[in-house]
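Mods, move this if it's the wrong board.
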Amino acid sequence: MFRLLLTVALLAASAHGVRRMVASMEIKTADDFLAGMTLGQIDIDILPMDTRDLPCEMNHLDNPFTNDFEDGQIDIFEGLALQDCRRYNVDDYEVYGLKLEHHNYDGWKPEWFRVVFEDGVFVQCDDGQWIDNNEVRNVTTCYRVGGGDN
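Not the wrong board. Structure tokens:
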């Protein structure tokens, strides 16, 4: 019986790669005129490559007591600011992309997003497109930086 349970456990483990835990999210707002966002709000979901895994959600992303999403600024969200994405696990850094959902009427132009894992490896998703007026869209131009084969 023990061998059967061990075999089942090993097969289940091999179905997924090594689980990597999200440590932070870094976001760079473009340097363009009025690229920053003051009144708007943004929701971001991390979309895993493995569709059997559910995405994690960060709603109305905010660092309390700071001005997030200013022109040319890099904002770092970690700990409780990550909400549902705090301690979120992804197989082998395999992030398919991000789902962005804008709220209100203050447009924003993000340049890139970085999903940073506990070991310092990150997945960068390049953007450079405006989002405004309650728009929902995906950013899927993502690639891993660090951790061996890219």
